[in-house]
Amino acid sequence: MRCRLATPADAPRLAEIYAPYVRDTAVTFATTPLTAADFRHKMQGPYPFLVCEKNGEVIGYAYAAAFREKEAYRWDVELTIYVDSTHHGQGAGRTLMTKLLALLKAQGYLNAYSCITLPNEKSIGLHKALGFAEIGRFDNSGYKLGKWRSVTWLHLPLGNFEGEPAEPVPLHTLPEAALSAILNEH
Questions:
Q1: Model pLDDT for residues 53-86, shown as the tens digit of each residue
Q2: Strand boundaries in the chain, DSSP class E
Q3: Among 40, 73, 77, 92, which residue's beta carbon has the most beta carbons within 10 A?
C-alpha cells in the first residue's frame, strides 16, 4: 500500500468509493452521492487530501477540512476517511489516518475531530487506537434509511497549547522533503 496526495484524476474513483456509503449505509448523513467535480473541489485549499493505493488502484481516501468557519477555530480540523468496502481490514484506514495526522501536525494544526455515525465500532476502534477520545454524543441527530441515527464526536490534540499558537500553514507551503518523508514513511 502507498499513500500520496490526491490529484484531480483521482476524483472519479473517489466518487465511486463514496457512492455506496451514501446509497446503502448511514455512515454518512449525505443522501446524494458526490460527483467527481465535488471531489476535485474538496482537493483545493490548505488541507491535505490523501489517497491510498494498492497495486496501483485507489482503495481509499482521507482528508481534512475546516472544523468551523469562525476565525478562532483555524487550528482545528475535521477528518473524513473512506475505504472501498472490498478492502476493509487491510490497514488502509490506519495508514491514511497516520499520514494525514502527521501532515496536519507539520502544518501546525492543533486539534483533529471526527464525527462517526453510531454504531460503527470499527471506525471508533481505529480512532481510539490512534489516540482519539470520545468527547460527545448527539442522539437522534440525523434521519436516514428509515430511522433516527446518533453520532459520536472524537478528538485528538495534535500540538502544544502553551502560549500564542503559530498560524497553520497551507499544505503547498510545506517543503517537498517534509511531504516526502511523511508520505514515504513506513
A1: 999 999 999 999 999 999 999 999 999 999 999 9
A2: 2-5, 49-54, 57-66, 76-83, 111-117, 133-144, 147-157
A3: 77
β 111-117/133-144 pair status: unpaired
Q: What are phi and psi of 135, to 5 degrees?
A: -120, -10
In this structure, the number of other CB atoms found within 10 A of the CB of residue 41 comes to: 13
Q: Is 22 helix (H, G, I), strand (E, B) or coil?
A: helix
Alpha helices in the chain (DSSP H): 11-24, 36-42, 92-107, 121-129, 176-184
Give residue 13's domain range. 2-184
Count of domains for the chain: 1
pTM of full prediction above 0.85 = yes
DSSP assignment, residue 23? Answer: H
